[in-house]
Amino acid sequence: MLLNHSRAIDVMREAGIDVLVLTQPNNFLYFSDFTQVNSFSFIDRPAICLFFADPAIDPVAIIPRWNYEAFVRTSWITDVVVYAEHAAEGSRAKAGGWRQALRTALTTRSDARTLGVEEKVIPKWIMDEVMAVCANRAIRDCSELIRRIRAVKTADELSHLRAATRVLETASADMLAAVRTGISEAELAAAFRASVGRQGAEGIKNFVLGFGPESVITHKLPGSRRLAAGDLIRFDLGALVHGYHADNARSYVWGEPSHAQERRYAAVLQGQSQGEALLRPGVTAGEIYAATVDGLRQWLPDARLEHVGHGIGVEHHECPALIHGNAQSLEPNMVINLETLYHDAEHGAFVVEDTYHITEDGHERWTHLSRELGLAAA
């Protein structure tokens, strides 16, 4: 099971939430184990899950008819309501579409008095139905509550995350093996994408890869620039397996690094090292941020970082956010991406990002791409 079931109930009870109305595809996947996320691209045929704080009340999945067979093979939820936009002779689907199915599910469970919704992402047309049916009940935004539930991973989640990380490591190595003078950013990106595809995984949308001065663009899409000796290669890439993300980033110099490049990269490594040393249960996200930034500023006093990392799971950026002042403590079985990044308009962007599993007494690093700055130019 992907869902951290006991944690979900504890967090909901602490917050006074009786039922979560889950519509975001990532959350539906997490609460149901249903990983065929491609079907969620049809926004007029949503999948909705109702999850209750009372373990005596079974969760409900409301799904389109076309997903039924796949859903019952993969999900642990047994109370499944299928719907169709149009009634068909002999179909078990409820006529009236998802609206009628949602109304019925909420009406027949009227003892769930306080509802939690994903206010940041719930489509308006679904929220309108919830409000119409539950006009006399309390409705609260639970976007951050859900992220807090998802922060500590189950064994099945760790398995998916490890698999995605293995794909990413292999694809990154294949991409680096393709580096040569004159290759374009787009051609190098294609080598990465091909490796991810060969391994049966998907790439992530925020594909970042740039050479030389282009590397300083925060979310640089690979383009036509061709690699020359002395260029900085910066990438921030990922992979997706069963709906779970992997993510890492590196900067390399094609050839012999200059003194200025080495100095900036040494600062990044110092920041990463100081943040990494604190990755263990009980340390707050804010403390990790402060240690990472302090290490970077020992070399580069002008360094400014909005964040130094994030949790990772069914979303690329999950809780906890490694930001200034965040008092959330790390817990065993969180999976964290720590990243130290320095932008320099003249010399490019220097970065190290790795993935860590928080263990009972420390951490385990999952990503192991070389941290040597120079790549041997052919």
Task: Characterise this structure.
With 378 residues, the protein is of the alpha+beta class. It has 10 helices and 15 strands. It has helices at residues 5-15, 25-32, 68-74, 97-107, 124-133, 143-150, 155-177, 185-198, 259-276, 285-297, and strands at 19-22, 48-52, 60-64, 79-83, 114-117, 138-141, 208-211, 232-241, 244-254, 309-311, 318-321, 335-344, 348-358, 363-365, 374-375. Strands 7, 8, 9, 10, 11, 12, 13, 14 and 15 form a 9-stranded mixed beta sheet that branches. Strand 8 and strand 9 form a beta hairpin. Helix 9 runs antiparallel to helix 10 (285-297). It is globular and about 70 Å long. The chain starts with a helix and ends with a strand. The mean pLDDT is 92.
Number of helices: 10
Q: What percentage of amino acids are in beta strands?
A: 15-25%
Main sheet makeup:
9 strands, mixed
Poorly predicted tracts of residues: none
What's the Cα radius of gyration? Answer: 23 Å
Helix % is 25-40%
What's the shape?
globular
Question: Which structural class fits the helix and strand makeup?
Answer: alpha+beta
User: What is the string of helix and strand elements?
Assistant: HEHEEHEHEHEHHHEEEHHEEEEEE
DSSP E strands, number: 15
Mean pLDDT, all residues: 92
* Alpha-carbon distance between the two ends: 48 Å
Layout of SSEs?
Layout lengths: L4 H11 L3 E4 L2 H8 L15 E5 L7 E5 L3 H7 L4 E5 L13 H11 L6 E4 L6 H10 L4 E4 L1 H8 L4 H23 L7 H14 L9 E4 L20 E10 L2 E11 L4 H18 L8 H13 L11 E3 L6 E4 L13 E10 L3 E11 L4 E3 L8 E2 L3
Parallel strand pairs: 1-5, 3-4, 5-6, 9-15
Antiparallel strand pairs: 1-2, 2-3, 7-8, 8-9, 9-13, 10-11, 10-12, 12-13, 13-14
